[in-house]
Amino acid sequence: MSPKNKSTYQLPLTPPSSTVKRRGTSNSCLEPINVNIKPKKLLSELKKSSQLSSPASPCKIRKITRKPTLKYRPIVNTIFNVQDYLDGISKSKKDNEKNLEFLKCSFKYSNKIIVIAGAGISTATGIPDFRSNSSSKEGLLMNKETKSLFDYNYVYSNDDSIEKFNKLMNHLNHLSNTVKPTKFHHFLNDLLEKNKIQRIYTQNIDGLEKKAVSSNYNNKIVQLHGDINFMTCNFCHIRTSYDPTLFENQLIPDCLYCMENQMIRRNAGLRARSIGKFRPSIVLYNELHPSGEEIMQFNKIDLKKFPDLLVIVGTTLKIPGVISMVKNFVTKIKSRKNGIILFIANELPSQRIIDIIGHIDLIVLGDCQAIPDLVE
Ligand SMILES: [Zn+2]
């Protein structure tokens, strides 16, 4: 091959002019930069250029709030009394101001928040928890005595207890359908929308966390004890909307889907199969957790991502499985320089829980519904 011919096979050093976009027609968020600018002035020009970009630009730049080194960290297990602060009690005013600032910074600068929620975030709606006053209307249905109605071995021991259980479930389902999420639920939703929450683990069965958020965030919410808005068949495992009338007519209702399937099989001349039973999609004490494996997987994923803030809210941590989950998160978060543990409840954690957790940065004593206004 002659040298002349060889040159025709060389790759072009620049693309043909027809493929080069003209300056100003680009989709970039940034305006074109003057290339003749001196290097020393380049940074200020870049800043100016980014300010000029249109707010209606299709490009979204995720704002990253880097966590600054904390100037103040309360001593371990410090109590911040919300009511004292709101009442302006002077003897602890200075400390309260500092603790409130710490609380604000905790939410402002954390971007991998784990929330472990309990009944306390829903009680403002009128949905009771086990500690509700038995003299109140709701407390009559939900108190320490009726707690046994959440024990699998007791509930299914006789017809009378099943009937009481069904009545309680129908009532809780009715409440969950009629009440609206609280201010604190919406606060969690705001944090989700800001992409600051890694996961919400809730012990509540009212489903209000999901009601407060867009369905896009459903995988961010783990309902540790199920959801009273659904019922599940123990044979075909279908999960469908809870129907209270079924539980009024039958102690343990037959699964409608299994029955329909049986009819189809019979018409097709196939042998009959078992018909499953519907149960509310909640997990009782002394029952094997049907989603135990799935929850463990969520835990593993979350621990690997090194969360930076643990918020234990509206719970006194009575369930052993939840306590052990808290311990794992505390260990991981405390291995970070800026990791923070918050405990928010209207009663102090027991000494046993304090010892188990080992390190709480701030115990916020008071109604969690006050938190959104305090930190904003
Ligand atoms: Zn079924």
From TrEMBL:
Q: Residues in the active site?
A: H225
GO cellular component, alphabetical, reads: chromosome, telomeric region; mating-type region heterochromatin; mitochondrion; nucleus
Residues binding Zn(2+), per UniProt = C233, C236, C255, C258
Q: Name one GO molecular function term.
A: NAD+ binding
CDD domains assigned to the protein according to its UniProt record, in alphabetical order:
SIR2 (cd00296)
Q: Gene3D superfamilies this protein is in?
A: SIR2/SIRT2 'Small Domain, TPP-binding domain
In which domain of life is the source organism classified? Eukaryota
Q: Which residues form the Deacetylase sirtuin-type domain?
A: 93-376
Q: Where is this region: Disordered?
A: 1-27
Q: Which Pfam families match?
A: SIR2 (PF02146)
Which key words are in the record?
Metal-binding, NAD, Repressor, Transferase, Zinc
Q: Which GO terms describe its biological process?
A: mRNA transcription; negative regulation of transcription by RNA polymerase II; pericentric heterochromatin formation; regulation of DNA repair; replication-born double-strand break repair via sister chromatid exchange; short-chain fatty acid metabolic process; subtelomeric heterochromatin formation
| Membership in a protein family | Belongs to the sirtuin family. Class I subfamily.
Protein name in the entry: Deacetylase sirtuin-type domain-containing protein
Q: What is the lineage of its organism?
A: Eukaryota, Fungi, Dikarya, Ascomycota, Saccharomycotina
Q: Which gene encodes it?
A: NDAI0B05490
